[in-house]
Amino acid sequence: TANLKNSDAGKISKPASGSSKRAVVEVKNLYKSYYLGKEEVPILKGINFNVYDGEFLAIVGPSGSGKSTLMNMLGCLDRPTSGTVLMNHQDVNMLDDNQLAYLRGKEIGFIFQQFNLVPRLTAYENVMLPTYASKKPGIDYPKKAKELLKLVGLEERMKHKPSELSGGQCQRVAIARALVNDPTIILADEPTGNLDSKTSEEVLTFFRELNQKGVTIIMITHNNELALRTDRVVTIRDGLITSDENVEEHAIHMKEALEASLQTEIH
Ligand code: ADP
Ligand code: MG
Protein backbone atom coordinates (compact mmCIF):
# COMPACT_ATOMS: atom_id res chain seq x y z
CA THR A 1 0.00 0.00 0.00
CA ALA A 2 0.99 3.65 -0.38
CA ASN A 3 1.21 3.90 3.40
CA LEU A 4 3.93 1.33 3.67
CA LYS A 5 6.24 3.30 1.42
CA ASN A 6 6.06 6.33 3.64
CA SER A 7 6.22 4.47 6.91
CA ASP A 8 9.03 4.95 9.38
CA ALA A 9 9.83 1.26 9.55
CA GLY A 10 13.52 0.70 8.99
CA LYS A 11 14.61 3.90 10.70
CA ILE A 12 17.23 3.12 13.28
CA SER A 13 16.23 5.55 15.99
CA LYS A 14 13.19 7.52 16.90
CA PRO A 15 12.51 10.14 19.52
CA ALA A 16 10.95 9.13 22.80
CA SER A 17 7.36 9.65 21.73
CA GLY A 18 5.95 6.83 19.68
CA SER A 19 8.97 4.58 19.99
CA SER A 20 8.21 0.92 20.38
CA LYS A 21 11.74 0.09 21.50
CA ARG A 22 12.81 -1.04 24.93
CA ALA A 23 13.80 1.76 27.33
CA VAL A 24 17.36 1.24 28.55
CA VAL A 25 17.44 4.37 30.69
CA GLU A 26 14.42 6.03 32.30
CA VAL A 27 14.87 9.35 34.07
CA LYS A 28 11.96 10.47 36.22
CA ASN A 29 11.63 13.83 37.94
CA LEU A 30 15.37 14.06 38.54
CA TYR A 31 16.70 16.78 40.83
CA LYS A 32 20.31 17.37 41.81
CA SER A 33 21.65 20.04 44.11
CA TYR A 34 25.14 20.79 45.28
CA TYR A 35 25.92 22.42 48.60
CA LEU A 36 28.10 25.50 48.82
CA GLY A 37 28.68 25.62 52.57
CA LYS A 38 25.12 25.42 53.92
CA GLU A 39 23.53 26.86 50.82
CA GLU A 40 21.76 24.42 48.51
CA VAL A 41 22.38 25.19 44.83
CA PRO A 42 19.90 23.41 42.51
CA ILE A 43 21.54 22.27 39.26
CA LEU A 44 19.06 19.76 37.75
CA LYS A 45 15.49 20.91 38.32
CA GLY A 46 13.16 18.10 37.28
CA ILE A 47 14.48 16.14 34.29
CA ASN A 48 12.28 13.57 32.52
CA PHE A 49 13.26 11.50 29.51
CA ASN A 50 13.87 7.97 28.32
CA VAL A 51 16.61 6.52 26.17
CA TYR A 52 15.64 3.58 23.97
CA ASP A 53 17.69 0.63 22.88
CA GLY A 54 19.71 1.43 19.76
CA GLU A 55 19.37 5.22 19.89
CA PHE A 56 22.13 7.69 19.05
CA LEU A 57 21.24 10.85 20.88
CA ALA A 58 22.87 14.10 21.84
CA ILE A 59 22.35 16.11 24.99
CA VAL A 60 23.21 19.71 24.13
CA GLY A 61 23.28 22.90 26.12
CA PRO A 62 25.56 25.78 26.99
CA SER A 63 28.45 25.43 29.39
CA GLY A 64 27.22 25.25 32.99
CA SER A 65 23.70 24.08 32.07
CA GLY A 66 24.11 20.80 33.98
CA LYS A 67 25.09 18.37 31.23
CA SER A 68 27.97 16.73 33.08
CA THR A 69 25.91 16.61 36.27
CA LEU A 70 23.23 14.75 34.30
CA MET A 71 25.87 12.44 32.81
CA ASN A 72 27.06 11.58 36.32
CA MET A 73 23.51 10.51 37.21
CA LEU A 74 22.99 8.56 33.97
CA GLY A 75 26.34 6.87 34.48
CA CYS A 76 25.67 5.96 38.14
CA LEU A 77 28.75 7.98 39.13
CA ASP A 78 26.69 10.06 41.54
CA ARG A 79 23.27 9.89 43.16
CA PRO A 80 20.27 12.15 42.58
CA THR A 81 19.04 14.51 45.29
CA SER A 82 15.57 13.23 44.39
CA GLY A 83 13.86 11.45 41.53
CA THR A 84 14.80 8.16 39.92
CA VAL A 85 17.06 6.72 37.28
CA LEU A 86 16.23 3.25 36.00
CA MET A 87 19.09 1.52 34.23
CA ASN A 88 17.79 -1.50 32.31
CA HIS A 89 14.70 -1.30 34.58
CA GLN A 90 16.89 -1.39 37.71
CA ASP A 91 16.24 1.52 40.10
CA VAL A 92 19.71 2.80 40.98
CA ASN A 93 18.41 4.30 44.26
CA MET A 94 17.91 0.74 45.52
CA LEU A 95 21.60 -0.14 45.17
CA ASP A 96 24.44 0.31 47.64
CA ASP A 97 27.75 1.75 46.48
CA ASN A 98 29.25 -1.65 45.59
CA GLN A 99 26.19 -2.72 43.62
CA LEU A 100 26.19 0.64 41.87
CA ALA A 101 29.84 0.23 40.87
CA TYR A 102 29.09 -3.24 39.57
CA LEU A 103 26.10 -2.01 37.53
CA ARG A 104 28.24 0.82 36.14
CA GLY A 105 30.98 -1.57 35.04
CA LYS A 106 28.50 -3.96 33.47
CA GLU A 107 26.13 -1.60 31.69
CA ILE A 108 28.00 1.60 30.84
CA GLY A 109 31.00 2.52 28.71
CA PHE A 110 32.39 5.97 29.50
CA ILE A 111 34.20 8.33 27.19
CA PHE A 112 35.45 11.67 28.53
CA GLN A 113 36.83 14.87 27.04
CA GLN A 114 40.14 14.36 28.88
CA PHE A 115 40.28 10.68 27.76
CA ASN A 116 40.92 9.63 31.41
CA LEU A 117 43.49 6.99 30.49
CA VAL A 118 45.90 5.76 33.15
CA PRO A 119 49.28 7.26 32.13
CA ARG A 120 51.52 4.46 33.37
CA LEU A 121 49.52 1.73 31.61
CA THR A 122 49.80 0.76 27.94
CA ALA A 123 46.92 1.10 25.47
CA TYR A 124 46.17 -2.60 25.91
CA GLU A 125 46.25 -2.40 29.72
CA ASN A 126 43.94 0.62 29.67
CA VAL A 127 41.42 -1.29 27.55
CA MET A 128 41.57 -4.22 30.01
CA LEU A 129 40.87 -2.02 33.05
CA PRO A 130 37.03 -2.26 33.18
CA THR A 131 37.20 -6.06 33.01
CA TYR A 132 38.79 -6.27 36.46
CA ALA A 133 35.64 -4.86 38.12
CA SER A 134 32.94 -6.60 36.06
CA LYS A 135 33.80 -9.83 34.29
CA LYS A 136 31.26 -11.87 32.38
CA PRO A 137 31.87 -15.62 32.23
CA GLY A 138 33.16 -17.31 29.12
CA ILE A 139 34.81 -14.30 27.51
CA ASP A 140 38.49 -14.24 26.49
CA TYR A 141 39.16 -10.63 27.50
CA PRO A 142 42.80 -10.38 26.39
CA LYS A 143 41.71 -11.50 22.93
CA LYS A 144 38.77 -9.14 22.96
CA ALA A 145 40.90 -6.16 24.04
CA LYS A 146 43.26 -6.79 21.15
CA GLU A 147 40.37 -7.10 18.70
CA LEU A 148 38.91 -3.81 19.90
CA LEU A 149 42.25 -2.04 19.54
CA LYS A 150 42.39 -3.39 16.00
CA LEU A 151 38.83 -2.19 15.39
CA VAL A 152 39.80 1.39 16.34
CA GLY A 153 42.91 1.17 14.16
CA LEU A 154 45.52 0.85 16.91
CA GLU A 155 46.78 -2.65 16.27
CA GLU A 156 50.36 -1.35 16.06
CA ARG A 157 50.06 0.81 19.18
CA MET A 158 48.96 -1.69 21.84
CA LYS A 159 52.12 -1.40 23.91
CA HIS A 160 52.30 2.37 23.74
CA LYS A 161 51.52 4.55 26.74
CA PRO A 162 49.15 7.54 26.44
CA SER A 163 52.12 9.96 26.36
CA GLU A 164 53.34 8.18 23.22
CA LEU A 165 49.98 8.59 21.45
CA SER A 166 48.22 11.54 19.81
CA GLY A 167 44.99 12.96 21.24
CA GLY A 168 42.94 11.18 18.59
CA GLN A 169 44.69 7.89 19.31
CA CYS A 170 44.12 8.32 23.06
CA GLN A 171 40.42 8.87 22.45
CA ARG A 172 40.33 5.72 20.31
CA VAL A 173 41.92 3.77 23.18
CA ALA A 174 39.19 5.21 25.42
CA ILE A 175 36.53 4.10 22.93
CA ALA A 176 37.97 0.57 22.84
CA ARG A 177 38.00 0.58 26.65
CA ALA A 178 34.37 1.74 26.73
CA LEU A 179 33.39 -1.22 24.55
CA VAL A 180 35.26 -4.03 26.29
CA ASN A 181 32.39 -5.02 28.58
CA ASP A 182 29.72 -4.89 25.86
CA PRO A 183 27.91 -2.08 27.65
CA THR A 184 24.20 -1.40 27.19
CA ILE A 185 25.03 2.24 26.54
CA ILE A 186 28.00 4.42 25.69
CA LEU A 187 28.06 7.70 27.59
CA ALA A 188 30.37 10.24 25.98
CA ASP A 189 30.87 13.64 27.67
CA GLU A 190 32.31 16.18 25.18
CA PRO A 191 34.23 13.33 23.48
CA THR A 192 35.74 15.60 20.83
CA GLY A 193 36.37 18.60 23.08
CA ASN A 194 40.13 18.10 22.96
CA LEU A 195 40.39 17.01 19.32
CA ASP A 196 40.93 18.92 16.09
CA SER A 197 38.06 19.01 13.60
CA LYS A 198 39.41 16.22 11.38
CA THR A 199 39.88 13.86 14.33
CA SER A 200 36.46 14.86 15.72
CA GLU A 201 35.01 13.89 12.38
CA GLU A 202 36.63 10.45 12.65
CA VAL A 203 35.25 9.91 16.16
CA LEU A 204 31.74 10.85 15.00
CA THR A 205 31.98 8.51 12.02
CA PHE A 206 33.10 5.74 14.32
CA PHE A 207 30.17 6.41 16.70
CA ARG A 208 27.79 6.15 13.76
CA GLU A 209 29.28 2.80 12.75
CA LEU A 210 28.99 1.51 16.32
CA ASN A 211 25.41 2.70 16.52
CA GLN A 212 24.61 0.87 13.28
CA LYS A 213 25.89 -2.27 14.99
CA GLY A 214 23.28 -1.67 17.70
CA VAL A 215 25.19 0.21 20.41
CA THR A 216 23.13 2.88 22.18
CA ILE A 217 25.10 6.13 22.34
CA ILE A 218 24.45 9.23 24.45
CA MET A 219 26.77 12.05 23.47
CA ILE A 220 26.95 15.16 25.59
CA THR A 221 28.15 18.29 23.83
CA HIS A 222 27.90 22.08 23.83
CA ASN A 223 28.48 21.95 20.04
CA ASN A 224 25.26 22.21 18.02
CA GLU A 225 26.93 21.12 14.80
CA LEU A 226 28.07 17.85 16.40
CA ALA A 227 24.60 17.27 17.83
CA LEU A 228 23.22 17.37 14.29
CA ARG A 229 25.24 14.22 13.53
CA THR A 230 23.03 12.17 15.88
CA ASP A 231 19.39 11.08 15.49
CA ARG A 232 17.77 12.84 18.44
CA VAL A 233 18.69 16.06 20.21
CA VAL A 234 17.75 16.78 23.83
CA THR A 235 18.45 20.38 24.80
CA ILE A 236 19.12 21.28 28.41
CA ARG A 237 19.19 24.81 29.71
CA ASP A 238 19.62 25.90 33.28
CA GLY A 239 18.89 22.41 34.61
CA LEU A 240 15.74 21.72 32.57
CA ILE A 241 15.02 20.02 29.26
CA THR A 242 13.82 22.74 26.89
CA SER A 243 13.40 20.56 23.79
CA ASP A 244 13.56 16.91 22.79
CA GLU A 245 13.18 16.26 19.09
CA ASN A 246 14.49 14.17 16.25
CA VAL A 247 17.43 15.64 14.42
CA GLU A 248 15.46 16.81 11.36
CA GLU A 249 13.03 18.80 13.52
CA HIS A 250 15.92 20.15 15.56
CA ALA A 251 17.77 21.36 12.46
CA ILE A 252 14.62 23.16 11.22
CA HIS A 253 14.05 24.85 14.58
CA MET A 254 17.70 25.91 14.78
CA LYS A 255 17.47 27.44 11.30
CA GLU A 256 14.23 29.27 12.20
CA ALA A 257 15.78 30.64 15.38
CA LEU A 258 18.81 31.82 13.44
CA GLU A 259 16.67 33.52 10.79
CA ALA A 260 14.52 35.18 13.46
CA SER A 261 17.61 36.56 15.18
CA LEU A 262 18.94 37.86 11.84
CA GLN A 263 15.56 39.57 11.21
CA THR A 264 15.70 41.37 14.55
CA GLU A 265 19.23 42.54 13.73
CA ILE A 266 18.08 43.98 10.38
CA HIS A 267 15.03 45.80 11.82
P1 ADP B 1 28.01 21.50 31.96
O1 ADP B 1 28.59 20.14 31.85
O2 ADP B 1 26.74 21.67 31.22
O3 ADP B 1 29.00 22.56 31.59
P2 ADP B 1 28.01 20.98 34.82
O4 ADP B 1 27.01 19.91 35.05
O5 ADP B 1 29.43 20.61 34.82
O6 ADP B 1 27.62 21.79 33.49
O7 ADP B 1 27.81 22.11 35.92
C1 ADP B 1 26.57 22.74 36.17
C2 ADP B 1 26.71 23.63 37.37
O8 ADP B 1 26.95 22.83 38.52
C3 ADP B 1 27.87 24.61 37.29
O9 ADP B 1 27.44 25.84 37.83
C4 ADP B 1 28.93 23.97 38.16
O10 ADP B 1 29.75 24.95 38.73
C5 ADP B 1 28.12 23.25 39.21
N1 ADP B 1 28.80 22.03 39.72
C6 ADP B 1 29.15 20.97 38.96
N2 ADP B 1 29.73 20.00 39.72
C7 ADP B 1 29.73 20.50 41.00
C8 ADP B 1 30.17 19.97 42.26
N3 ADP B 1 30.72 18.75 42.37
N4 ADP B 1 30.00 20.76 43.35
C9 ADP B 1 29.42 21.97 43.25
N5 ADP B 1 28.98 22.51 42.11
C10 ADP B 1 29.12 21.79 40.98
MG1 MG C 1 30.39 19.40 31.10
Task: Give the number of DSSP strands.
Answer: 10
Kindly estimate the percentage of residues that lie in beta strands according to DSSP.
Answer: 25-35%
Radius of gyration equals 19 Å
Give the count of helical stretches.
9
Distance between the termini: 50 Å
Protein name: ABC transporter ATP-binding protein YknY
Pfam family, one: ABC_tran
EC number: 3.6.3.-
Enzyme class: hydrolase
Can you give a write-up of this model?
- This protein has 267 residues and is α/β, with parallel strands linked by helices.
- The chain has nine helices and ten strands.
- It has helices at residues 2-5, 67-74, 97-107, 123-133, 141-151, 167-179, 197-212, 224-227, 247-266, and strands at residues 23-36, 39-52, 56-60, 82-87, 90-91, 108-112, 185-189, 216-221, 232-237, 240-246.
- Strands 6-7-8-3-9-10 form a six-stranded mixed beta sheet, with helices on both faces. It has a four-stranded antiparallel beta sheet with strand order 2-1-4-5, covered by helices on one side.
- The longest helix is centred in the last third of the chain and has 20 residues, at 247-266.
- It is globular and about 60 Å long.
- It starts with a helix and ends with a helix.
- The model is unreliable at 1-18 (pLDDT under 50).
- Bound molecules: adenosine-5'-diphosphate (ADP) and magnesium ion.
- Residues 67-68, 189-190 line the site of magnesium ion.
- This is ABC transporter ATP-binding protein YknY.
- Residues 1-6 have a biased composition (Polar residues).
- Keywords: ATP-binding, Hydrolase, Nucleotide-binding, Transport.
- Residues 1-16 are annotated as: Disordered.
